[in-house]
Amino acid sequence: xxxxxxxxxxxxxxxxxxxxxxxxxxxxxxxxxxxxxxxxxxxxxxxxxxxxxxxxxxxxxxxxxxxxxxxxxxxxxxxxxxxxxxxxxxxxxxxxxxxxxxxxxxxxxxxxxxxxxxxxxxxxxxxxxxxxxxxxxxxxxxxxxxxxxxxxxxxxxxxxxxxxxx
Length: 166
Hints:
Blueprint: E1 13-16, E2 20-32, E3 35-44, E4 49-54, H1 58-61, E5 64-65, H2 69-78, H3 90-103, H4 106-122, H5 127-148, H6 152-164
Antiparallel strand pairs: 1-2, 1-5, 2-3, 3-4
Helix pairs in contact: 2-4, 2-5, 3-4, 3-5, 4-5, 5-6
């Protein structure tokens, strides 16, 4: 089958907000309510899950390409030990951070990682917030590693050293 003319191609890595970095495994047509719909088949390594997203819905969902090396480096540079305290009410904080993750930009993901990391140093995070932090950190590591072509463990060590810096 010839590859349809789509924004993303088979083998390309993409970021799926809240879900993680995935790779397009296939572009396929399926019948839905009597119509042929074109889908991206995306494998998400972080959750070992494959999802099908209608090609026409990728913008609404916020799926995007991996950022450029420059953008990845800017996101890394934005992570510091300096910390702006955020609201003490964890539910408000959780909602704010969830909205940032839904935004899906690398800068918003880096912001969530920084905020929740520093908050966890003040007081242990509630379970939901801890999951949000772990997810944001994994997405950030995966995307930066792909963007700048370095191993994930090296990127993770770099991010954590930046968070620890005074």
